[in-house]
Design goal:
The protein is built from 10 helices and 5 strands. With 285 residues, it is of the alpha/beta class.
Amino acid sequence: MFKRVALYGAGVIVLLALTLLLVLVWQGRKKPDTSGQYVALGSSFAAGLGLGPRMPGSPLVCMRSTHGYPHLLAAMTGLSLVDMSCSGSTTDHILHGGQVFLGPQLDAIGPETRLVTITSGGNDVGYIGDLTLASGRGGMIGKLLWKGPKPVAERDFGKVTENVVRIVQEIRRRAPRAVVVVVSYPAVLPEQGSCAALGIDAAMADTGRQIAARLHDATQAAARRAGAVFVDMAAAGAGHDACAPEPWVNGAAPASGAPFHPSQAGARATAAEVFKAIAGKFVAG
């Protein structure tokens, strides 16, 4: 009897796993909508991880929220949005695809595209992942496998710059009239030290600040080289880090939202900063 129940349970698990795999493959093979006036590209900081309901029809792996800054910005501009942002994605995924069966995020750029935002690069250099693991929020597997942060000098910030330049160039090839905006990551860590909300020691906070600063410089350099608009959320978010009285970013164990990711206040602030940056540069329609 026990063996029969165990075999049945194992069969159910296998069936569920196969069903999930088929769903992921099916979602990955769906061709993106290219009719959007505004296309959002990037990682979880753009996807609004943990901020609200999953965007209907979006790939399960992306964990796209309807409360991320792209949706707020679309409402402010009145533009139709195609949100291609995906939690866990890298600049390579934007360019070439390959994230759990998904194609390139760039495939949504079409002749109707008038505005594109890009928030990416953190996953390329292990920025938020290291903060999450250092705070003990990576689960049992993270505790077993993570041996500490890789030296900052060994992280490929140069590749982030080159890839973001290529992304902007490809957007311009597909949609010459589009305004392209590179949006940097907001300040997660305070200017000095650490705090209880972060759940990390001062040494890890120092490493995180170095990574954040070099990532900021890498994306800013790419925007300058490619002639894109640069929205400096690190500067705009100064004084609104996870340790601040009015944070725009969560700490390690937020009551709502994802660890070390923008809060709803952060998403609203990002949308407002982008909207301000494109004023006078952009005309809908």
